Amino acid sequence: MSSLAVAPAHKKRSTYTWLFYLLPSIAIMLVFFIYPILLTFFYSFTNLALTGEAAKALKFIGIDNYVRMFQDPTVRISIWNTLVFLIGSAVIGQQVLGFLIALLMKHKNKMFRRVVGTIVLAGWVTPEIVCALCLYSFFGDEGTLNAIISFFGIPEVTWLFTVPMLTVIIANIWHGTAFSMLVFQAALDDVPTEIEEAAVVDGASKWQILFRITIPYIRETITTNMMLVTLQTLGVFGLIYAMTGGGPGTSTTTMPIFMYNQAFVNYQLGYGTAISLLLLLIGIVLSLFYIRSMKE
């Protein structure tokens, strides 16, 4: 009877112990995540600015920033540019290229994997601004690419003005593919070789093994990596800003670039925070889509 009476008290004390250990994490999340989001949400309904009359007196203006945002044609352009950049550099570029590199490295000797891995990792460990400067030098009017094509008698191209979106997509692929490669490399190494060998004995081709065994086996890894790469790519700013500044015109103005221009170039912080919440909403929707795909 006494043991039954002690059990609930012990269980309650154990719950409080776990809560005590979680308090630092909860405090950090509240201070550095929840509070900034709530503050950003509040400022998006104000006329907060760095200069002018709005900087002297903060006023609540309701949904004016959101009405202005959805009436601004540049917002639609930035959303479209963001989707193009996201699909080109993350969904197609980093995901597919990272998987192909990991697949080619499978069953190779350690020296081959070490050399190829080091070459691919060089772009990932390079700081974003350094990566942008390297690719700017490569695609510049007097850059490496024009020097190569002019050697073969091909007319030089102003890459950063003719195909600016393509240049920043390639730059981001080079910078971030190593992450996908490492994720897929670990996943492919866990695929049981017995299943593949049995499929070979049954007469399956390499393509059948790839699409009917390998890819279904690592499907959850593919979805998880896609979600992580997508969220990281949504927030890319320094790479694009250093290479093109969002131009020429608005051809490479993604949502982070447009948000920065409105908040810190035009000094309209209230409007900039409204744009940032739209970007956050897009990230949440895509995350929920990926999570749902993982469950299915």
TrEMBL record:
Q: Where does this protein reside within or beyond the cell?
A: Cell membrane
Where the record annotates domain ABC transmembrane type-1, the positions are 80-290
Whether Ribonucleoprotein counts among this entry's keywords is no
Query: Which SUPFAM superfamilies is this protein grouped with?
Result: MalF N-terminal region-like, MetI-like
**Domain of life from the UniProt record:** Bacteria
The annotated topology with respect to the bilayer is: Multi-pass membrane protein
- Provide the Gene Ontology terms for cellular component: plasma membrane
What residue ranges are annotated as transmembrane? 20-43, 79-103, 115-139, 159-184, 222-243, 269-291
PANTHER family on file:
BLR7065 PROTEIN, SPERMIDINE_PUTRESCINE TRANSPORT SYSTEM PERMEASE PROTEIN
Q: Which GO biological process entries does UniProt record here?
A: transmembrane transport
Phylogenetic placement of the source organism: Bacteria, Bacillati, Bacillota, Bacilli, Bacillales
- Cell membrane in keyword set: yes
* Protein name per its UniProtKB record: Amino acid ABC transporter permease
- A Pfam family this protein belongs to? BPD_transp_1
InterPro entries, sorted: MalF_N, MetI-like, MetI-like_sf
- Sorted alphabetically, which keywords does the UniProt record give? Cell membrane, Membrane, Transmembrane, Transmembrane helix, Transport
According to its UniProt entry, this protein's organism is: Paenibacillus selenitireducens
What protein family does this chain belong to? Answer: Belongs to the binding-protein-dependent transport system permease family.
